[in-house]
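Example 9 (inverse folding). The structure is encoded as follows.
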């Protein structure tokens, strides 16, 4: 085991034991090819970088970061549409903070705000509803970005807006679901992933069932893991245990939060308000059934239908490798702009903006070299 200070772990002895177990199990996996394990959640990406887990892995193990940061996977076209909405004189964009700095083709919400647009950073959709109630002369458009974890709260907010009879509130829906994106990822012959560390937050809503196809149809084991470094080590050990035995199952290493059937109430409100549709993911392209749109009963809260934004022609940023990073074809350090033209102070792509972005995590914890 490499020399490492385990003092920063909540339970240093347990962490040290799990690192030893990971090393033992890696030796039991047949063959001598790299074992490629992907964490698909941005919170896992941050935790792995912060705790230095990469440096504790045996040589055979490659930890790959996947597309689990909702801000990062929002397509340029959607950012541009939000910017077009922000330019309407009557509009106020209500958004979580990370979205403000994400560059679109030629601008960002932050730049639009500097030029006079109204952009309100909110901490929940409830804040956006309260703002709309207090400012009846403004059209408040909430930027709906997120996976199954945030989609139920947006659905609840839309139902609340309906109950309140709010006429000046709508949502730009760019929400996405995780299982269809995973299907696209594991179907990519270039990726060659041996196991998936599955997202803890999303799984509290949907439970393990929607991932079973990974094991059944693709022979890829998956483990739902929590976000502490020890949780992640346990998830990695469970993946290696399956690979050593030549089995593929979906297991849960986060039983304190993930129930077998997820959260049926949250799933029901998603189904009541939304239906699935094809969605455009940065780096992965259009994936069938991987997004959400409002059901007809709630269509009057759809900002695109209501205002028909006309975004400028989409332009990708020259040299930005966010797309490659989101499908694990590159690490952040392999982007030519990383740490030079692109830094957290001057981000050129969403992966450097978001608090869950791979480039931001790499910059903060691995450094530029
Ligand atoms: Fe994009 Fe910046 Fe990351 Fe390069 S370093 S991939 S430009 S966010």
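The amino acid assigned to each position is listed next.
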């Amino acid at each position: 085991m490499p020399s490492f200070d385990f003092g920063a772990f909540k339970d240093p002895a347990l962490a040290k034991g799990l690192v030893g177990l990971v090393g033992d199990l890696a030796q039991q996996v047949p063959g001598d090819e790299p074992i490629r394990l992907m964490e698909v959640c941005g919170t896992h990406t941050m935790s792995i970088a912060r705790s230095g887990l990469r440096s504790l892995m045996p040589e055979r193990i490659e930890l790959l970061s996947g597309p689990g940061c909702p801000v990062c996977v929002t397509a340029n076209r959607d950012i541009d549409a939000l910017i077009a909405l922000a330019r309407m004189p009557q509009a106020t964009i209500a958004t979580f903070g990370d979205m403000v700095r994400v560059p679109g083709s030629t601008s960002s919400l932050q730049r639009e705000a500097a030029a006079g647009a109204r952009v309100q950073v909110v901490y929940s959709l409830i804040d956006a509803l309260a703002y709309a109630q207090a400012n009846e002369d403004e059209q408040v458009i909430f930027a709906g970005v997120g996976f199954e974890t945030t989609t139920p709260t947006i659905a609840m907010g839309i139902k609340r807006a309906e109950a309140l009879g709010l006429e000046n509130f709508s949502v730009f829906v760019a929400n996405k679901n995780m299982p269809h994106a995973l299907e696209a990822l594991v179907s990519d012959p270039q990726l060659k992933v041996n196991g998936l560390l599955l997202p803890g937050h999303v799984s509290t809503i949907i439970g393990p069932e929607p991932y079973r196809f990974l094991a059944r149809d693709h022979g890829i084991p998956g483990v739902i893991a929590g976000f502490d470094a020890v949780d992640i080590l346990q998830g990695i050990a469970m993946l290696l245990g399956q690979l050593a035995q030549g089995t593929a199952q979906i297991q849960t290493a986060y039983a304190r939060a993930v129930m077998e059937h997820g959260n049926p109430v949250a799933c029901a409100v998603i189904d009541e308000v939304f239906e699935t549709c094809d969605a455009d993911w940065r780096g992965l392209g259009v994936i069938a059934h991987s997004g959400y749109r409002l059901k007809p009963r709630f269509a009057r809260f759809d900002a695109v239908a209501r205002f028909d934004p006309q975004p400028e022609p989409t332009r990708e940023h020259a040299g930005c490798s966010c797309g490659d990073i989101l499908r694990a074809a590159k690490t952040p350090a392999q982007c030519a702009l990383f740490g030079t033209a692109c830094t957290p102070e001057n981000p050129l792509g969403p992966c450097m903006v978001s608090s869950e972005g791979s480039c931001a995590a790499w910059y903060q914890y691995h450094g530029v070299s």
